[in-house]
Amino acid sequence: MEAITALGDPVRRRVYDYVVAQDHEVGRAEAADAAGIQRTLAAFHLDRLADAGLLDVVFRRPPGRSGPGAGRPAKLYRRSAADHVVSLPPRDYGTPAALLAEVVESLGAESDLERVARRHGRTAGESAEGGVEEVLARQGYEPYRTDGAAGVVRMRNCPFHAVAREFPPLVCGMNLALVEGLLEGMGETELRARMRARPGECCVEITSKNNDD
C-alpha cells in the first residue's frame, strides 16, 4: 500500500515513469530535467520512491573518473527488481499459476500451451484498438524502440515475470506464441515476433520480417 500511495503524487509519478523507462541508471539532475522540476525536488521524490521500494539506489562514479580526487560516487536510481501487487481482499494468483506450469512441464504439454496461447493472442488482436506498441503497453509489456535498429520493438517488462523465474523455457515459449498470435490477429503481416532474451527485459521482441539482425 505504501508503494501504491507513493505514486499518488502526479509529479512523483512523472519522475517514476521517466526512471523506469530508461535503459540506464538515472541521476537526480537528469530526473529533474525530464520532469521539469528543481533538482532538490527531484531528489526528494526519488528518495521517496526508493523508500517505498519502487526504485533501487546505486552509487557510481561517472565513467572515466576514478582514484583520488574523483569525488564521491553519484547517487543513481533504477527500476526496483521487486514486484508490487495490491488486491482487496487478498488474492494469490501466483501459486496456482506456478502449479499449473509445473503440471504442463510434467506432462510435456508445452506445445498444447503454445497453441492455446497463440489462439488467445489472435483473438485479442482481432479486437484490439491502436498500434502494436499501444496494444502491448496496455498488456503491461512496456514496449520501446531501439536506437539504430529500425523496426525493432523490445519490451522492458514481462507481465509473467513471477512464473517465468521458475519456469523460463515454458513461460517464454508461451509468451512468444501469445505475441505471435496477437500480431496475426491484428493483421500485422510485415512484423514477426522472435525470441531474444535480454537481462531484466521480456524474452520476446518484434521486428520487421526483412530484418535478419
UniProtKB/TrEMBL annotation:
It holds the Pfam family HTH_20. InterPro entries: ArsR-like_HTH (IPR011991), WH-like_DNA-bd_sf (IPR036388), WH_DNA-bd_sf (IPR036390). This is ArsR family transcriptional regulator. It comes from Actinoallomurus iriomotensis.
